[in-house]
Amino acid sequence: MDFDTDSLNKMAEEISGFTDDLSEAIAVDSCVRKRYKHVLICGMGASAIGGAIFADSMYYSSKVSVDIAKTMSLPEWVDKDTLFVACSYSGETYETIFMYKLALDAGLDVVAVTHGGTLKELSEQNGNPMILIEGRSMQPRSAIGWFIGILGAIIEDAGGPGIRHQLRMMLPRLRGYQKEIESEDGIAWRIAKDLEGHVPVVYGAPDMEAIAVRMKNQLNENSKIIAFSGVVPEFNHNEVVGWYDDPYRTKFMPVVICDDR
After folding, report:
1. How far apart are CA 56 and CA 22, in angstroms?
2. CA 258, CA 173: separation in Å to the nearest integer?
3. CB 43 within 8 A of CB 87
4. Which residues, 6+ apart, have CB-to-CB distance to 71 below 8 Å?
């Protein structure tokens, strides 16, 4: 039986381009020219995951609060010290465009991050700063390198820590990890083989919760399988009982993402 592998090959190419995309994104002009107390990032799916990663990892280290908006209304705390960032790779995400309009109506400073579409057109019409994701067209979930780099630059210039330098320092290690991940006997292949026949449940430490969500989403979208995510130590107070006592637990496979602390 012949299989059409074009989409698989395209996804593999896009994933392999993550580090190059990140390297380019770090160098963009953030369009931010003042400091803020809050950065509110609006997006859905992969367009918001870069912001969620910073919201988790910078919780203790940033003087600027970073929050993610996935609702259809602005929180009451937004004010003139809030920078609103609208993220949509396609530029057509309904929820993001709706929130973008609300932010403008509320008089907030707005920056758009997109590859084109309606969000690009509205930004040009309204004259708000906009950062275009350059390069080849890709599936939105593959643009995470761009979103991490661009949002890192925006947060830094809005008053956050020196994210650009930290990301640049990571690039050599990321290129090394890429070779390991793409190897047919590498850790990614071993994890995939272990997960075969199970429902993955991905857990992350509090500052890596978004990473767990990202892995869950990738399994959903790329592998076309059911997967779930959660966070520790909250896991210790409820779900751990199910892992011990539920007779169906053998159908699930836990994956824990943590650092070396």
Report:
1. 19
2. 17
3. yes
4. 99
- Residues in the chain, pLDDT under 50: 1, 3
- Residue 150 to residues 69, 173, 224: CA-CA distances in angstroms? 18, 20, 29
| Six token digits for residue 118 | 């309606």
Report d(CA 231, CA 257) in Å as an integer.
Answer: 10
Residues in the chain, total: 261
Q: What is the dihedral of CA 221, 222, 225, 230, to 10 degrees?
A: -70
pLDDT at 3: 46
Burial of 236 (0-12, 13-18, 19+ CB in 10 A): exposed
Backbone angles phi, psi at 245, to 5 degrees: -110, -20
3.40.1440.60, 3.40.50.10490, 2.60.40.1640, 2.40.50.100: CATH of 6-172: 3.40.50.10490
E strands in the chain: 38-42, 65-69, 82-88, 109-114, 130-132, 199-204, 228-231, 252-257
Q: Give residue 20's pLDDT.
A: 93
Beta-ladder partners of 84: 40, 110
> Fold for domain 184-257?
Rossmann fold (3.40.50)
Residue 74 CA to residue 79 CA, distance in Å, equals 10
What's residue 1's pLDDT? 44
pTM, entire model: 0.89
Amino acid at 43: G
